[in-house]
Design a protein that fits this description.
The complex is a heterodimer. By secondary structure, chain A is an alpha/beta fold. Chain A has 13 helices and twelve strands. Classes of the chains: A alpha/beta, B mainly alpha.
Chain lengths: 425, 693
C-alpha cells in the first residue's frame, strides 16, 4: 500500500532528517496538517525558471537556417546546418529541416529528440521597450504595461499553489530576491545553501552550540508570534540543511555541472528538490547575453554562453533522473536581438527571442510558435524578429499545467489570451 | 550594460524620441515661426511659506495617560523617530524634555560635526548631475570612447569582459581622461547613507529621508537613472523631508532620477507643436525652400518626407510616471482614478524631461536648445528650465485634457503639469494615503483609522505640512497605545544602524554593512519596483533573513565585520563584567533600555551557567581560526563590484590608530572573557527583542 503524503509525513516518514532537537521540521509537519488530502502520495511539482539576463539572440540559439534574408543580414554571424566541405565552423544541429540548434548546445539534442525539450520561437513581450531594465521588470512582474505591480509572477504562482508555504516553497538561488519573487508569499533568496546556518565562525563546538541554543530558546519564547514562528522555522530549516551536507554533495548519475554561477545554482536547486523540503518554485539566473560586440559563431562569447546554459541544464536533468515527473524547467530572456548584425560583429537590442522548456509533461521535440521569412517587411519596426507569442501565454500554460494553478487570470492579470500547446494536457 | 537608445536620449537632444530624424531637419522646422503663435508667460509658482517659520514646542505628549513613565516615553520616541538610541541618550532626552527634543528634531538644524568629519572623504557626493555624468561615464561608453580614440582594439574583446591587459588599458585611459569608475560614486553614496543614519544628530530628518526616498522610490538597478540617485537624495528628498508634501512631489516630478526611472523624460505627445508644424502648409513651403537653398536634392527630400510621415504616426506617450504618480505617490491604488485619468495626466506631463547633459568630459558639446534659441525666444515659446529640469514645449501635447473631472483647456504648457501636481497633492485621497503610510511607518503595520483621520485632517488643513502631520500623530493617544509599543519589526537597515548606535560603533568601512544588508534582504537603493520596500514586519522576517539577522548580531559584536570597530568594554566604562550573568544583565540593558528584559535574561542565564563554560570558551577562543572571508553578495553584480573598495580601505584600517588601540585593549582583558562577552552581545543583538522597535 502506498501511504498518502499526509500519512507519510504524519507518521514520521521524515524521521529521515534525524533531527536532534525537534524531529520533523515544524513547517513540514504544519504542511502535513494543512495539506488537502489528495489521494496517493505525490512528490511536489517543481517549476524551475532561469532568467537569461541581457537578452539572448534567439536567432543564433535556434537559427532558421533556410532563411536567405537572415543569411544576408548576418554575413559574419550566420551558420547553417549543412555540412560544407569548406566549413570553417561546426554546423548547426538540424532539428526539423528548418531550425538548427547552435552546435554548442549539443547536449540539448537528445532531450529534444526524446520530446522532453520544447522550444518556443518568436516569444516576447507586447511592450516594445528595448531597455533591459524595463523589459526584465515587465517580464518578471508579468504585467508588461504596469510598472507599479508590487508582486512578481512567480510569487503569485507560489501564492496560488493552494496550500500554505514553508521556508523552501519558493527559493531564488541568487544574492538578492529577484523582481519575479517580490510579493506577499514568503520567498527565500540564498546564494549558497551553506550560508543557511548560524555563522559562529568558531571551531569551538561548545561556544557554537551555546549561541545556537541561546537563539533557539530566545525565539521560542518570543512574544511576537511572527518572530516566534519564523524563528522556529529558521532553526528547523537550518538543521534540515545541515543534515543534507550540502558541501559534499555528489550529483547522481555522475552528472557534471559546469563550475559557473548557473551550474552552481542548478546544483543547489537539485539538492533542495532531492531533500524534499517542499520546494515548488525555484529561480536562477544566467548573465552575459548582451552581445553587442564580437558575438562569435560556433566559437566565442555566444557559444560560451550557450555551452554553459545547456550543459548546466542537462547536468541538472541527469542528476534529477528520479524526479523527472515532478520537475519542469523553463528559460526566459527579456527580448531578442536585431536581425542584422551591427558594426562590431554583434547584435543590438531587438524584440522576440526563443525559450526552452524541459520536462516530462512538456510537448517536446517541437519548435513552437510562428516565424515568417525574415524579409524587412515581416520584421517589427523593419528590423527585429516580431513577437508572435506573448510570453504570458507560455508562462501561464506552463504554470497552469505543471503547478496545477487554475486562476491564471490572477497570475497574469491583464492576460486572457490563448495557450499554444507547449504542455501536454 | 550598453543601452543604445537611452544613450541617445541623453546625448542627443530633447528630440531624441525621433531617433531617425536628422537634426538639421528638425532645426529647420523649428526656425519656422507661425505669426499667430500665442505667447505664454512662464509663471513660477512658489510654495514657500506655510507656517513653517514659527517654531513651536508641541503640546505635551499624552504618554502619562497611557501609562508610560517619562523615560519609557523617551525610549519609545527614540525607537520610532531615530535609528535607535545611543548610550545614555534616554537621559539626555528626558533632561531636555520630550516635547522640546521632538521640536528640535523637526527643525533638523542641530550641528553635525561628527557626521561632517566622517563624510569629508566623500568629495564626489557634492557633484551636480552634470558633473557626475561628465566624470563617471558608464563603462560601455568608456569602452566606445577608447575604441574611437584607438587605444582599445575591439577585435580582442567580447561582451565588455576584458582580459587583464585590456582592463589595464582602460584604467590608464580613464586616468588620462580624468574619468572615474561608476562604482566609486555608488559606493561613496551608499557609505554616506550609512554614515548619515548612524551619526547624524538630526535623526528625524534621516528617518524621514529614508521614508520619502522609499515612497518616491527610484532604483540603482536601472542604469539610465542610477547616476542621478545621489543628487536625488541630496537635493530632492533630504531638504524636503520635513517640509511640504506638494513641494516634495514637485521636486521629485522634476528630478532627473524620477524622470528617467519612470520614463517621463522620453514621453511626448502626438499633438505637439512639432507635429502640428509638420502638417502646416506654410511650414512645408518654408521647409522646401530652405532645403533647396541648402542644396538638398529632391531624392534626399523624399527620403526626409518619408521619415516625416513616420514621425506623424509616432505617438511617444509613456504613461508610466503618470500612473505611479497617482497610484503610488499621491492618491493610492483605491484613490478613485481611472485608466483614462492616467492617460490624460500623461498627456499633461508630455514635455517634462531633463535638460540635456553630456556624458563624458571630452564628448562633443551638444547644441542645447537654449543656445540655439536664445533665452528670450526659449521663454517665448513656452520652454522652462529649472536646474536639470526642462519643459520642452515642442513635445507637449497641446490638446485639451480632463483629469478627475477637471478640464485643462487649451494648451497651458508647463502650467498644466503644475496644476495637476497641485490638484493631486491636495486631494483627500492623497491625504489619507500619505497619512496612513506615515502612521504605518511610525506606529504599527495596521494603524487605527481614527489616527489616520486626525493626521489627514491636519494634512489638508495645513496644506501638506509634514511637520504638522507628525505633531498630530505624536500628540494622538493612538501613538501611545500600549498595543502599538514595539509592534514594529526593524527593517534590516534599522537593525544594523540601531546596533551601531547602541554599541557606539566606529564605522571605518561602511560598505561592509551594505553587504550584510543585502544578505538580510534589504539591498538598499536596489529595490527594483517603484513601490519601494514593503513596510511590513512579515516582509522582513522570513526564515533566511531572520537567520542572517542573528548572524549579523554575532558578526558585529564579535568584531567579525571588517572596518566596524566596537569597544564593548568602553560601553561599560571599562568595567569588566564579573560574570556571564553580569554581562548579560548589563549589556541587555545597555542595548535595550527601558524594556522588560526579565524573560530574555531568564532564558539565557541557565546557558551561561553551564559547568566549566568559561574554561571551555577560553580554550576554544585560543583555537579559534580567523574568520573566513564573507561572501560578498555583490560579486556577481553588474553594477558594483567589491574589489577596489576592499583593497583601499583595508590598508587604511591597518593604519588606523584607533583600530589598533581597540585590539590592544582586547588583548589586555582576558581573551576568554572578551569572547564570552562579545558572544553574549551577539546573542542580544540577534534576539527577538532587539528585532523590534
Amino acid at each position: 500500500m502506498i501511504p498518502s503524503r499526509r500519512a507519510f509525513l504524519k507518521n514520521g516518514g521524515l524521521a529521515l532528517f534525524g533531527l536532534g532537537f525537534g524531529g520533523v521540521p515544524s513547517f513540514i509537519a504544519r504542511a502535513a496538517n494543512s495539506q488537502k488530502i489528495n489521494g496517493l502520495y505525490q512528490k511536489n511539482k517543481v517549476l524551475v525558471c532561469i532568467f537569461q539576463r541581457g537578452a539572448m539572440d534567439g536567432l543564433m540559439a535556434v537559427t532558421p537556417f533556410t532563411d536567405e534574408y537572415l543569411k544576408a543580414a548576418r554575413p559574419g554571424l550566420f551558420m547553417t546546418a549543412a555540412k560544407q566541405t569548406t566549413a570553417t565552423y561546426t554546423p548547426l544541429i538540424d532539428l526539423d529541416g528548418r531550425f538548427g540548434l547552435h552546435p554548442s548546445m549539443k547536449s540539448f539534442e537528445p532531450l529534444f529528440r526524446e520530446k522532453r525539450l520544447a522550444i518556443v520561437h518568436g516569444i516576447g513581450s507586447p511592450n516594445t521597450t528595448r531597455s533591459h531594465f524595463d523589459a526584465q521588470d515587465y517580464m518578471e512582474s508579468g504585467t508588461p504595461f504596469n510598472k507599479g505591480t508590487a508582486s512578481g509572477w512567480l510569487n503569485r504562482a507560489a501564492g496560488l499553489l493552494g496550500h500554505e508555504g514553508n521556508p523552501f516553497t519558493a527559493v531564488s538561488v541568487t544574492s538578492a530576491l529577484p523582481r519575479a519573487l517580490y510579493g506577499n508569499f514568503p520567498a527565500l533568496a540564498i546564494n549558497n545553501l551553506q550560508d543557511f546556518a548560524l555563522q559562529t565562525k568558531s571551531s569551538n563546538p561548545t561556544g557554537n552550540s551555546m549561541v545556537s541554543k541561546s537563539f533557539e530558546d530566545l525565539y521560542d519564547q518570543a512574544s511576537l508570534g511572527l518572530l516566534k514562528e519564523t524563528g522556529k522555522e529558521s532553526f528547523d530549516a537550518m538543521k534540515a540543511l545541515k543534515k543534507m551536507d550540502t558541501k559534499n554533495y555528489k550529483p547522481a548519475n555522475a552528472a557534471v555541472y559546469p563550475n559557473s554561477p548557473l551550474g552552481n545554482s542548478l546544483k543547489q536547486i537539485a539538492q533542495l528538490i532531492k531533500s524534499d523540503l517542499g520546494l515548488e518554485v525555484a529561480f536562477a539566473e544566467s548573465g552575459g547575453w548582451d552581445t553587442h560586440f564580437n558575438q562569435g559563431t560556433d566559437n566565442g562569447a555566444f557559444a560560451r554562453n550557450v555551452t554553459d546554459l545547456s550543459t548546466a541544464i542537462s547536468a541538472f536533468w541527469t542528476d534529477l533522473e528520479q524526479y523527472h515527473d515532478s520537475v519542469t524547467l523553463m528559460t526566459m530572456t527579456e527580448f531578442g536581438r536585431t536581425v542584422k548584425q551591427n558594426g562590431t560583429r554583434g547584435t543590438d537590442h531587438g524584440r522576440a527571442s526563443c525559450n526552452f522548456i524541459l520536462g516530462n509533461d512538456v510537448n517536446g521535440g517541437l519548435v513552437h510558435g510562428q516565424m515568417l521569412p525574415l524579409s524587412v517587411e515581416n520584421l517589427a519596426d523593419k528590423r527585429d524578429l516580431a513577437v508572435t507569442t506573448d510570453f504570458r501565454s507560455v508562462f501561464s500554460e506552463v504554470a497552469a499545467s505543471h503547478l496545477k494553478i487554475q486562476q491564471t487570470t490572477s497570475l497574469f492579470p491583464d492576460w486572457d489570451g490563448k495557450n499554444i500547446g507547449v504542455m501536454r494536457s | 550594460m550598453f543601452v543604445g537608445l537611452n544613450f541617445f536620449v541623453l546625448s542627443e537632444s530633447i528630440f531624441s524620441t525621433l531617433p531617425y530624424l536628422p537634426h538639421a531637419f528638425i532645426n529647420l522646422l523649428m526656425q519656422f515661426q507661425p505669426c499667430s503663435k500665442k505667447i505664454f508667460a512662464v509663471l513660477l509658482v512658489s510654495f514657500i511659506g506655510f507656517s513653517s517659520f514659527f517654531q513651536s514646542t508641541p503640546k505635551k505628549f499624552p504618554y502619562k495617560k497611557a501609562g508610560f513613565t517619562e523615560r519609557a516615553a523617551a525610549a519609545h520616541l527614540l525607537n520610532r523617530f531615530s535609528f535607535g538610541a545611543t548610550p545614555n541618550q534616554i537621559d539626555a532626552v528626558v533632561a531636555k524634555g520630550l516635547e522640546k527634543w521632538f521640536a528640535e528634531q523637526l527643525e533638523a538644524s542641530l550641528p553635525d560635526t561628527q557626521l561632517q568629519r566622517r563624510l569629508q572623504e566623500y568629495d564626489d557626493l557634492s557633484l551636480t548631475n552634470t558633473e557626475v555624468l561628465a566624470t563617471f561615464p558608464r563603462p560601455a561608453l568608456i569602452q566606445r570612447m577608447a575604441i574611437k580614440d584607438g587605444v582599445l582594439n575591439v577585435e580582442r574583446d567580447s561582451l565588455g569582459n576584458y582580459k587583464k591587459e585590456q582592463k589595464e588599458i582602460i584604467k590608464k585611459y580613464m586616468d588620462e581622461k580624468g574619468y572615474k569608475p561608476q562604482q566609486d560614486l555608488f559606493r561613496q553614496f551608499i557609505n554616506s547613507k550609512i554614515l548619515h543614519c548612524t551619526y547624524s544628530e538630526n535623526q528625524l530628518q534621516e528617518v524621514m529621508t529614508d521614508f520619502w526616498f522609499n515612497h518616491f522610490n527610484v532604483s540603482m538597478t536601472k542604469n539610465e537613472c542610477a547616476h542621478f540617485i545621489p543628487a536625488y537624495e541630496r537635493d530632492v528628498i533630504r531638504p524636503n523631508a520635513l517640509g511640504n508634501f506638494e513641494k516634495l512631489l514637485e521636486a521629485t516630478a522634476k528630478s532627473p532620477a524620477m524622470l528617467t526611472f519612470l520614463d517621463n523624460a522620453s514621453s511626448s505627445g502626438s499633438n505637439t507643436t512639432l507635429t502640428k508644424r509638420m502638417n502646416d502648409k506654410n511650414a512645408q513651403a518654408f521647409l522646401t525652400k530652405k532645403l533647396s537653398e541648402m542644396g538638398i536634392s529632391e531624392e534626399e527630400r523624399q527620403e526626409m518626407n518619408q521619415q516625416l510621415n513616420k514621425l506623424k504616426a509616432y505617438n511617444g506617450l509613456n504613461e508610466n510616471y503618470a500612473r505611479e504618480l497617482m497610484e503610488l505617490h499621491t492618491l493610492g491604488v483605491d484613490g478613485g482614478y481611472t485608466q483614462k485619468d492616467v492617460t490624460e495626466a500623461a498627456r499633461i506631463l508630455t514635455g517634462w524631461t531633463l535638460f540635456p547633459m553630456n556624458e563624458g568630459k571630452n564628448q562633443k558639446p551638444m547644441k542645447h536648445i537654449l543656445e540655439r534659441l536664445g533665452e528670450e525666444e526659449f521663454k517665448r515659446r513656452g520652454f522652462v528650465k529649472e536646474n536639470d529640469f526642462l519643459f520642452a514645449a515642442n513635445r507637449h501635447d497641446t490638446g485639451s485634457k480632463v483629469v478627475l473631472g477637471r478640464t485643462f483647456q487649451l494648451s497651458n504648457g508647463y502650467e498644466e503639469g503644475m496644476e495637476l501636481l497641485h490638484m493631486l497633492a491636495t486631494n483627500n485621497a492623497t491625504a489619507q494615503f500619505i497619512c496612513k503610510k506615515i502612521a504605518t511607518r511610525f506606529v504599527c503595520d495596521t494603524p487605527a483609522q481614527t489616527l489616520v483621520d486626525k493626521m489627514a485632517t491636519t494634512f489638508l488643513k495645513q496644506k501638506g505640512d509634514i511637520k504638522k502631520v507628525l505633531i498630530t500623530m505624536v500628540g494622538a493617544p493612538e501613538f501611545w497605545d500600549k498595543q502599538a509599543i514595539r509592534e514594529k519589526v526593524k527593517s534590516p537597515f534599522e537593525l544594523a544602524i540601531s546596533t551601531f548606535r547602541a554599541l557606539n560603533a566606529d564605522i571605518i568601512q561602511p560598505y561592509q554593512v551594505f553587504n550584510w544588508l543585502s544578505r538580510m534582504g534589504q539591498k538598499i537603493y536596489f529595490y527594483q519596483a517603484p513601490t519601494g520596500f514593503p513596510d511590513r514586519g512579515q516582509y522582513w522576517i522570513n526564515t533566511g533573513a531572520l537567520l542572517n539577522r542573528m548572524n549579523f548580531g554575532l558578526a558585529a559584536a564579535t568584531q567579525k565585520i571588517p572596518g566596524i570597530n566596537i569597544n564593548l568594554a568602553a560601553l561599560n566604562n571599562n568595567h569588566e563584567p564579573e560574570s556571564a550573568e553580569d554581562a548579560l544583565r548589563i549589556y541587555s540593558k545597555l542595548l535595550m533600555p527601558e524594556r522588560d528584559l526579565t524573560l530574555t535574561i531568564q532564558r539565557l542565564t541557565p546557558l551561561l551557567n553551564l559547568p566549566n563554560l568559561d574554561k571551555k570558551i577560553t580554550a576554544a577562543a585560543q583555537s579559534t581560526a580567523p574568520p573566513p572571508q564573507m561572501n560578498t553578495p555583490l560579486a556577481d553584480d553588474n553594477y558594483i563590484t567589491p574589489d577596489d573598495m576592499a583593497d583601499g580601505k583595508r590598508k587604511k584600517i591597518k593604519e588606523n590608530p584607533k583600530a589598533k588601540k581597540i585590539n590592544n585593549e582586547s588583548m589586555t582583558s582576558a581573551k576568554g572573557n572578551y569572547t564570552m562577552l562579545s558572544q553574549v552581545v551577539g546573542v542580544i543583538v540577534g534576539s527577538p527583542e532587539f528585532q523590534r522597535k
